Write the structure tokens for this entry.
Amino acid sequence: MMKIIIWIASFLLILGSCTEPFDLEDELSGTPGKPVINGWISSFQHEYKVTVSRTIALNDELVPAIVDDANVMLYDDEGLSVEAEYDSKLEAYFFPSWFYGVEGRTYWIEVTFANGEVFQSEPQLLHNDPENEELS
């Protein structure tokens, strides 16, 4: 008898917790995805890139929504500004080969989309690399 009471109470709890139906199709169709901006820099001479895309709806095909018409800029606290160029073959924005980060400087990125949306990261201090310190 106790099992039946627990089962009924659980069933009522589950039914009571669903207050409003969620229609996945209505919520996700036709809405632009959220921006996804991924990149990094360090104090090493390296080819630095940024990928810019948008999230896709769960009901869409699993094809990445790559953004190829944004303006990607990197700034530092000493007035440096570097623009990244888009490479259509690699589907990423690349900074010039001469660029690398300097330890102790603060960097941030700004991405401007074709529709005017602007996203700016929080400024980040480029810390000393512990592996680099061990090598010297």
